[in-house]
Amino acid sequence: MSNIVSTLKSSWIQGKFTWLFQLMVICTFGFTLVFVGCGEDGDPEPEPIVEEIIIVDGREVVVLQGTLTEDKTLSSDYDYLLRGAVFVEDGATLTIEPGVTIYGEQAQNGTLIVAQGGKIMADGTADAPIVMTSDAEIGQRARGQWGGLIINGRAPTNQGITAGEGNTGDFGGNDPADNSGVLRYVRVEYAGIEFSPDNELNGIALQGVGSGTVIEYVQVHMNQDDGIEMFGGTVNLKYALVTGARDDSFDWTDGWTGKGQFWVAQQYGDEADNGFENDNSSKNNEATPRSAPTIFNVTLVGDPADGSKSDNGMLIREGAAGMYVNFIVTGFREVGLDVNNESSHKQANEGNLIVKNSIFFDNGKANFGDEKDDDGFDEAAWAKGLDNYEKDPNLVAPFNKDNPNFTPGAGAASVSAASPPSGGFFETANFIGGVSSSNNWTTGWTTSARN
Description:
This protein is mostly beta strands. It has two domains: 1-232, no CATH class; 235-451, no CATH class. Helices cover 6% and strands 34% of the residues. The protein contains four helices and 30 strands. The protein has helices spanning 19-28, 342-349, 379-384, 410-413; strands spanning 9-10, 50-56, 59-68, 72-74, 79-88, 93-96, 101-104, 111-114, 119-123, 130-134, 149-152, 162-163, 170-171, 181-189, 194-196, 199-200, 204-207, 214-221, 228-231, 236-243, 250-253, 259-266, 276-279, 294-301, 314-317, 322-330, 335-340, 353-356, 359-361, 366-368. It has a 26-stranded mixed sheet that branches. A hairpin with a 2-residue loop joins strand 15 (194-196) and strand 16 (199-200). The longest helix has 10 residues, at 19-28. The chain is globular and about 60 Å long. The model is unreliable at 5-41 (pLDDT under 50).
């Protein structure tokens, strides 16, 4: 049995549906969204939400397909399956109760997309996280088996209003405080389906998402493309974990100017690229708003032993700037920190790009270095002048894929942490890295299962 859906027996629950609802299901039974489509104006075609209930091991599972145009709550009394691209349209709010599991159907490229003006209220708990996962059976799950979660907002980008990857709708605008809802204690697993070569979806794609959106305690696990990617916008993220992403763990471009704190990435060497891949714009390195986030307390872990992948810890390029403080970067095969190309070197020299009070340790070719060495910028001299160190942070078990532990030890404690800015988002943190010795927030609600 290759997936959960193949084992299901369709069964209408007697007495729960009117004849009209049954007729709607019958009429739409043959329609599925095999891929994400757009109307003539570039917006997703509005197909009304249709529900079908099927029985899985005695439990009711609700199949969702189409477009949500009114508020809807996904109850913890059920599990849910995304059949094709399911859109949350402008003016609609999708509320997901703690403990709900949502399956993305492989056969129909199940994907959840929140359009501009739509909201997702996925407010889980540590004891009852919201899980978005593959419909394959446990033991047969792998990267790229469904689409993932895409949120489109109206916050600024340096590309104006833009169509999202995979035709997932427009994003961008002029509202920095735009609110797309809440993601709290949410896991996204085995996603990133490939629509065409070089057109794969990220685990969580935040496209022009505004600072009114709350995102904390999220994990993306075993994604086919990037783990979490920001396309412009002003959204802030706290307590974010990416494990086993095939491409970059955290990625941004097009003018993301948000904040971040308490992030961890663990790469698997069979397939991985960079821990951070930070771009401003490949079309115009000087485009504004410039990608310039403020991020404190991060641990980036490569995989030096397994496979030939896991490249750079932090790759900053194409005019990207920002402040990166209290980091631990270790175990990458190429370099720990690569500030690449003249436009980002200029940002560093002018003080708009800062990496400080951080540890870079045991990265393959060098802890600091530019693979291209394009204009003689000296990463090592620049980084060491900002209180960055090459020493063992003594992480407990950073390379353990089954039971990782990113808690820092004596080496990290010997480096002074810089205080984050005031203003409400950042928490006081007098330690280096994304996890403290007194609060290992990456355990309990997360997963390390690889299939």
